[in-house]
Design a protein that fits this description.
The protein is of the alpha+beta class and about 525 residues long. The protein contains 17 helices and 19 strands. It has an 11-stranded mixed β-sheet, sandwiched between helices. It has a two-stranded antiparallel sheet with strand order 7-8.
C-alpha cells in the first residue's frame, strides 16, 4: 500500500504547495585575467613586469575601480556607507527600503573591507623564476543594492583588487512575486514566503517561464555600468553558480495544525534519519572512501526549530515559517555534486588537418556532473526539487498523532457547558479522578451502563450529589453518553480508550518509576 504524503493526508487543511529558488548567488569571472596563467599572459602582452604588478598596475586598477563606483554613486545622489565588521548589511538595506519604498533603481551602495582571493608575486619552487601565485588578502568591496523590474531586490559585490571576481545575489521569491503580479494572481507574502496564493497551479506554471538569457542581459548591463575594467575585459566575463537554494513550501490554511505537527515530525526525524538516508535524499551512493561525512543537526533558536542534514557542500533543511508554512529546502555551494544526462564532449586537441573548433565535437549523451554555468539553473532546479520530494516522502511514513493530541487536549482542558459554566478537564494524576475512572471501567458497567445508584457502592466516600456533578462533567467532556429516556450512561469510544490509557499510564509507568 502506498504511503500518503503529508500533503495528501492533510489535504483539507493545506491550501497548496509552491516551489521556487530562494537565494541564488553567482560568481562573475573575467577569464582574461581570472587565473594566474591568464594574468601572466596579459602582463606580458602589455609589457608589465611581475615586480611592477602589485605596486603599479594592480594599484592603478584599484584606484580606477574605486573612483568609478564613487562617481556613479554621486551621480545617483547616494552616499556610500562604510560597514564595519559584525554589522548586518541586510538590516541596513531593510531600514533604507522602509524609508525609500520599492521603486526601481539603485537602493544604496555599501563599502566594506573584506577578504578576497588575489595574486601575489613569488618564486617557482623548482626553477626559481618569478611567477604569479594565489594568495589570501583583503581589499575594499562595494555592495551595490538595487531593485530590478523583473528580479526584485538584488546586489552586486564589486572587489577593487585583481582578478575582480564579481558576486551577484538575487532571491527567487522576489522574481516569482513580480511574475504573479503580471499574471494577475492574488497572493500574500510574509517572511520571504507566500502564505496564500489564489491559484497555486498557475503560480507553479510561471516557474517554467524563467529564462536565463534575461538574467544574463541584466548581469551584463550592471557589470558594464558599475565595473570600471569591464571595458577592457568584458567579453571574457563568465557567470557561474556559486550557491543555490531550492525551497518547497507546504502552505497550511491556518496556524493551528502545523506547530504541533511540525514539532512531532522534527523530533522524530532527528532520531530516525540515518547516514544512508541522507545519501538517498541527495541522490548519491554511500561510499567508504568519500571525504564528506553526512551529519544531522537539530537547532532550536528564537525564530524556531530547524533540522539540517548535511553531506559535503549540499544540505537539506526543514523548518516552519510564520506558523503556517512548512519549508523543505535544498542548498548547495557546488552544483557539480548533482548529475544529469547531457552531452559530454571529450577533451582532445586538434589533429593534423583538423580545426581546433572541431576537435571535441564528437560527444555522447551520458550521466555527468552539472556544469557550473548559470545556464544550468533549470537542471539544478529539477535535481534539487527531486531531493525535496524524496525527503517529504520519507517524513510522511511516520504515523501522525496530531488528531490524538488534539483529542487529549479537549479532554484535559477546561471547557464550557451549554449554560456557560466552567467544567474542569480530567486530570489523570488526581486521586478522585482516578477513583472515578476505575469505577467506570468495571465490567458490569460496560454491559448494564452507569447510573448514580450503581456507582455509589464503588465510591463509598462520595455523596450522590458529587457523583451527579462528576457524571455531568464527564458528559460535557464527551467521555460518556446518555441513553435516551433513561438516567443511564455508557462510555464513548474516545472515553473508553482514554480511561484505559490513563489507568495503564498510572499503574505501569508512574508508580513503578516512583518505587525505584
Amino acid at each position: 500500500m502506498k504511503t500518503q504524503t503529508l500533503v495528501e493526508r492533510h489535504a483539507k487543511d493545506i491550501k497548496g504547495v509552491i516551489e521556487c529558488f530562494d537565494r541564488v548567488v553567482l560568481f562573475g569571472t573575467y577569464k582574461a585575467i581570472g587565473w594566474t596563467g591568464a594574468m601572466e599572459q596579459h602582463l606580458r602582452g602589455r609589457g608589465t613586469s611581475f615586480m611592477e604588478f602589485n605596486k603599479v598596475y594592480a594599484n592603478q586598477l584599484r584606484l580606477e575601480m574605486a573612483d568609478h563606483v564613487r562617481t556613479l554613486a554621486r551621480a545617483e545622489g547616494i552616499a556610500i556607507r562604510q560597514v564595519n565588521y559584525g554589522q548586518r548589511k541586510e538590516s541596513l538595506v531593510e531600514e533604507i527600503l522602509a524609508q525609500r519604498g520599492g521603486r526601481e533603481g539603485v537602493v544604496c551602495v555599501l563599502g566594506a573591507i573584506e577578504r578576497c582571493r588575489c595574486f601575489k608575486v613569488g618564486k617557482h619552487p623548482t626553477t626559481g623564476f618569478l611567477q604569479l601565485q594565489w594568495s589570501p588578502g583583503k581589499c575594499q568591496h562595494f555592495y551595490v543594492y538595487f531593485i530590478d523590474a523583473e528580479f526584485g531586490v538584488c546586489h552586486l559585490r564589486i572587489p577593487t583588487w585583481a582578478p575582480f571576481r564579481l558576486q551577484f545575489c538575487c532571491n527567487g521569491h522576489d522574481w516569482l512575486e513580480r511574475q504573479m503580479k503580471q499574471a494577475g494572481l492574488r497572493f500574500k507574502k510574509a517572511d520571504n514566503c507566500f502564505t496564500a496564493v489564489s491559484d497555486f497551479a498557475a503560480a507553479r506554471a510561471l516557474l517554467q517561464q524563467f529564462e536565463p538569457q534575461r538574467l544574463h542581459r541584466m548581469l551584463e548591463r550592471m557589470a558594464a555600468r558599475w565595473v570600471a575594467v569591464h571595458r577592457r575585459f568584458g567579453p571574457s566575463l563568465h557567470w557561474s553558480v556559486y550557491q543555490a537554494e531550492w525551497s518547497t513550501d507546504i502552505v497550511f490554511g491556518n496556524d493551528r495544525l502545523l506547530p504541533e505537527l511540525y514539532r512531532q515530525i522534527v523530533r522524530t526525524a532527528a532520531i530516525e534519519v540515518g547516514c544512508a538516508d541522507i545519501y538517498r535524499f541527495l541522490g548519491r551512493q554511500p561510499r567508504a572512501n568519500r571525504k564528506a561525512e553526512p551529519s544531522s543537526r537539530l537547532q532550536t533558536l528564537v525564530q524556531g526549530t530547524r533540522l539540517k542534514h548535511t553531506l559535503g557542500a549540499t544540505s537539506l533543511k526543514m523548518y516552519d515559517k510564520v506558523g503556517s508554512v512548512l519549508r523543505i529546502e535544498c542548498t548547495t555551494s557546488d552544483v557539480t555534486t548533482f548529475k544529469h544526462r547531457r552531452k559530454v564532449e571529450p577533451r582532445r586537441s586538434a589533429g593534423p588537418g583538423q580545426n581546433q573548433s572541431d576537435a571535441g565535437s564528437r560527444g555522447a549523451i551520458k550521466w555527468a556532473p552539472m556544469r557550473k554555468t548559470f545556464y544550468s539553473l533549470g537542471a539544478v532546479a529539477g535535481a534539487m526539487s527531486a531531493c525535496n520530494r524524496r525527503y517529504l516522502a520519507y517524513i510522511s511514513q511516520w504515523p501522525d498523532r496530531t488528531g490524538q493530541r488534539h483529542a487529549l487536549g479537549e479532554v484535559t482542558a477546561s471547557r464550557r457547558d451549554k449554560k456557560d459554566r466552567s467544567v474542569r478537564g480530567v486530570n489523570f494524576f488526581r486521586a478522585d479522578d482516578l477513583q472515578f475512572l476505575r469505577a467506570l471501567q468495571r465490567g458490569e458497567h460496560q454491559i448494564q451502563g452507569v447510573r448514580n445508584r450503581t456507582l455509589q457502592p464503588h465510591l463509598p466516600d462520595w455523596k450522590p450529589a458529587r457523583i451527579s456533578r462528576t457524571l455531568r462533567r464527564f458528559r460535557v467532556l464527551k467521555l460518556i453518553k446518555p441513553v435516551a429516556g433513561t438516567r443511564k450512561y455508557y462510555p464513548t469510544a474516545r472515553g473508553e480508550s482514554l480511561i484505559i490509557a490513563g489507568l495503564q499510564l498510572t499503574e505501569r509507568i508512574i508508580l513503578p518509576a516512583l518505587a525505584n
